[in-house]
Amino acid sequence: MVFLLKRVATRLPRATGNLRAASTQAKGLQSILEKRDDDVVITLAMRTAMGRAKKGQFKDTPVDELLAGLFQGALQKSGLDPAKIDDICVGTCHPPSPLYLSRSAALSAGIPHDVPISTVNRLCSSGLMAIRSIANDIRSGEAEIGLAAGVESMSLNPRPTPTLAPSIGSNSQANDAVQPMGWTSEMVAQAFNISRKKQDAYALRSHSRAAHAQATGLFAEEILPLRVGEAIASVDDMIRPGVTLESLAGLKSVFPDWGNGTTTAGNASGVGDGAAICILMTRERARREGMEVIGKWVGCSVVGVEPRHMGVGPVAAIPKILEQTGLTKREVDLWEINEAFASQYAYCVETLDLPIYKVNPNGGSIALAHPLGMTGVRLVVTGLAELRRRNQQILCTSMCVGSGMGAAAIIVNEATKRT
C-alpha cells in the first residue's frame, strides 16, 4: 500500500499539476495554422496492415494480441517512455469485455499498471472517438500525453444481431436503427436514386487507387509490421488488383431481398481485421520530449441522422465541423471519407460537391476493408501520410455511423515530405 501511494503521488504533477482552462478552439484557416504551446498535437500515427476477415492474415489473431502488438510497435517506433503516458483510449465495437481485453493488452505490452485506459464504442467512428477523447483530455488539462487506438477483429467478433423489446421495436425509427448496414445501403440507393452503375464506378475508383498505392509502396509508410506466428504482417491482404467495371458488373447482389439489390461484394466495404494508433500530447510537451510533431488536432463534430439512411452521416457532419472551425470546403486539401458502401459514398461526395481528386486518393474501405473500430484512426493515419507526401496541410475525415449518425474531424499536417 505504501508503494502504491508513492507511485500515485509521483504521477499527480502530470495529471493535475498543470491544469489549465480549456483553450478556445481556433477558428479560421490562419488561426488554425498558428502554433501554440497548448495545441493538441500528434507525434505518431500508424497502423497495422489489414487482413481479410475469416481468410486473411489476422483471421486467428484476437483483439488483445492485435492491440498488444500495436502498443509495442508504437512505443518502439516513437521512443516514448510508457511511464509518461497519462491515459489511453481504445475504440472498438464488438469484442466481448473490451475494456478488460484492452487493459490486459496494455499491461502485456509493458505499459505500467498505473496508466489508466478506457474503451469507447460509437460503431464506425469508434477510433475517431478515441482520438477525440484523448484530445479533449489534453485540451482540458487532465492529461499531457495519451494514446488513442482503434481495433477490430471481424473474423473473431462479427456483428451481433441486436434484439429489441417489443415495446421498443414497435417504433419505426428504433427498429430501423438496428437493421443490418447492408439494408441501409439499399435504402440510400433507393431513396436517392444511386444506380448500380454509379456505385460500381465509385467502387472501381477505390479499387484502382488502392492497388496503385500498394504497388508503389505508399502504404508501407503508415504500416507497423506485426508478427503473426512465424510470419510478419506488413501488407494489406484485401486489395484486389485488376478489378474492372466488367468484373464488378458481373457480381450478384448480396442483399437481393432489400431495396433494388444494387449492393455487391465489390461495391461495399470489405470485412476485415486490424488496428491503428495515434500518440497525442501538448505541443509544449512534445518539445520537451524531443518528439517530432506530425499533426495538430483541431476539432470534431458528431451528428444524428435518419437511421434508415445512416450512410448520409457525412453530409451533416462535414458542414458542422467546417462551421465549428471556420473553414471552407476550398481550404480543405484532402478528404478521407469512409467508404462503407458505394451507395452512400457516392451520395455524400456528390451532395457535398467535393472534387474527387481530393477524396480518398489512395482508395478507401471498399478496397482496403473496414475493421469497424480501427477505421476512425486509420483514416487519420492515411490522411496525414498523404498530406505529408503532397506538402499540404488541412485534412477533413468523416464517416457514417451505424444506427444513424455521422462524425467528422479536422487535422492539420505539420510534417514535411521525407526524401
From TrEMBL:
Classification via InterPro entries = Thiolase, Thiolase-like, Thiolase-like_sf_Thiolase, Thiolase_acyl_enz_int_AS, Thiolase_C, Thiolase_N
Identify the CDD domains for this entry: thiolase (cd00751)
So where's the catalytic machinery, residue-wise? C124 (acyl-thioester intermediate), H370 (proton acceptor), C400 (proton acceptor)
A cellular-component GO term for this protein: peroxisome
Catalysed conversion reaction: an acyl-CoA + acetyl-CoA = a 3-oxoacyl-CoA + CoA
The Swiss-Prot or TrEMBL record describes its family as follows:
Belongs to the thiolase-like superfamily. Thiolase family.
Q: Which Pfam families match?
A: Thiolase_C, Thiolase_N
Q: Where do the Thiolase C-terminal domain residues begin and end? A: 293-412
Which pathway does this chain act in?
Answer: Lipid metabolism; fatty acid metabolism
Q: Tell me which UniProt keywords the record has, alphabetically.
A: Acyltransferase, Transferase
Keyword Coiled coil among UniProt keywords: no
Gene Ontology biological process terms, A to Z: fatty acid beta-oxidation; phenylacetate catabolic process
Protein known as: Thiolase N-terminal domain-containing protein
All residue ranges annotated as the Thiolase N-terminal domain in the record: 40-283
Q: Which PANTHER family match?
A: 3-KETOACYL-COA THIOLASE, PEROXISOMAL (PTHR43853), ACETYL-COA C-ACETYLTRANSFERASE (PTHR43853:SF10)
Gene Ontology molecular function terms on file: acetyl-CoA C-acyltransferase activity
